[in-house]
Each structure stands twice: as structure tokens, then as C-alpha cells.
Design goal:
The chain has one domain (about 1-60). Helices cover about 55% and strands about 0% of the residues. The longest helix has 18 residues, at about 35-50. The N and C termini lie far apart (about 35 Å). The protein contains 3 helices and no strands.
């Protein structure tokens, strides 16, 4: 179910001005704390290279 939902979200996100690169699904076992930490660090670094979310900066409240 998760893979299907992520695939659908990656198709929908650009309609809202959100790059699909900002969403990633990675399977990590409960005992793989180091892999989890590394995956989060990599994703944070990747999102930082993308810069601010254009959809957020375009919002007017």
C-alpha cells in the first residue's frame, strides 16, 4: 500500500507546486537505527539543495 500511495503522491505533488524529489520512501528495519539516521541525513541534505519550497513561498494568507 505504501509504495502505491507514494507513487500516487509523486504524481500529484507537482500540481501543487511541490517537487516530487521532496518525497522518498525507504524500507528500513526496526533494528536499523544507523541506516535510518543516514537516510534522514541524506534526505535533509538533498532537500536543502532543492532550496525553499516554491509552493510555500507562493502562499498568501
Amino acid at each position: 500500500k505504501a509504495r502505491r500511495r507514494v507513487k500516487l503522491l509523486k504524481e500529484i505533488l507537482p500540481r501543487f507546486g511541490i517537487a516530487e524529489d521532496r518525497l522518498k520512501l525507504t524500507w528500513i528495519g526496526a533494528s536499523d537505527g544507523i541506516q535510518f539516521a543516514d537516510t534522514v541525513k541524506d534526505m535533509v541534505a538533498h532537500v536543502r539543495t532543492l532550496g525553499p519550497n516554491e509552493a510555500r513561498t507562493a502562499m498568501v494568507i
